[in-house]
Amino acid sequence: METGESTEASGPVLAWCTGPRCTALHRLAGGEDHQRQITSTVRETRGAVLITSPCLGRCELAGIAAVARRDGPSNRIGPLAWFSGLEDHDRFQALQAWLRTGGPQQLLQPDRVLPPGLRAATCGTSPPPRIHRA
Q1: pLDDT (mean) for 86-99
Q2: Are the C-beta atoms of residues 19 and 80 closer than 8 Å to each other?
Q3: Distance CA 7, CA 31 (A)
Q4: Residue 7 pLDDT > 70, yes or no?
Q5: How confident is the model at residue 1, as a pLDDT?
Q6: By C-alpha distance, which of 52, 39, 56, 45 is closest to 12?
Q7: For residue 64, which of 95, 35, 37, 86 has the smallest C-alpha distance?
Q8: Burial level of 9, CB count in 10 A (0-12/13-18/19+)?
Q9: Is the pTM of this model over 0.85?
Q10: Quick count: other Cβ atoms within 10 Å of Cβ 38?
Q11: 112 contact partners, CB below 8 Å, separation of at least 6
């Protein structure tokens, strides 16, 4: 019986910068495989979505990414919580671990409950990403 509602799992949405500055900072910090690791983490996390960008436009913040919560049934995406300095090994691992456990749990407040390793990396929030669907 079809109900018209999506049964897709809720999960984190990660916007990951693959721009030249962020990539170089990851490489210089010894994290040459961060892109592979983060892709694998998202792939293995139920309901997770990865958005890569050739530049997220915040180069002054070092290696950055943004995370939001996506509600599977409605496919609604909440605001983005931004994190900087992700070329740092501890911050990167904290991000990975948080994503593996589902990332933000509150749709409208993605930065409300953060793991200790990400608190210092927080650099703000912004409106939800605009996703153009074909």
Answers
A1: 96
A2: no
A3: 36
A4: no
A5: 42
A6: 45
A7: 86
A8: middle
A9: yes
A10: 22
A11: 104, 106
- Summarised one tens digit per residue, pLDDT across range 51-75 is 999 999 888 888 999 999 999 999 8
Q: What are phi and psi of 108, to 5 degrees?
A: -95, -10
* Residue 13 CA to its chain's centroid (Å): 5
Alpha-carbon gap, residue 110 to 116, rounded angstroms: 15
Token pair 């990539």 is found at 23
User: Can you name the residues that pair with 82 across neighbouring β-strands?
Assistant: 66, 124
Classify residue 134 as exposed, middle or buried by CB count within 10 Å of its CB (0-12, 13-18, 19+).
Answer: exposed
- Rounded to whole angstroms, the Cα distance separating 131 from 134 reads 10
Alpha-carbon span 81 to 60, nearest angstrom: 17
Residue 48 identity (one-letter amino acid)? A
Provide the token pair at 123. Answer: 């650099």
Mean pLDDT, the chain, rounded, equals 91
Q: Mean pLDDT check: name the lowest of 30-34, 74-78, 122-126.
A: 30-34
- Angle at which helix 89-100 crosses helix 34-44, to 10 degrees, equals 10
| The two three-digit tokens of residue 99, written as one number | 């994503």
> 3-class SS at 13?
strand
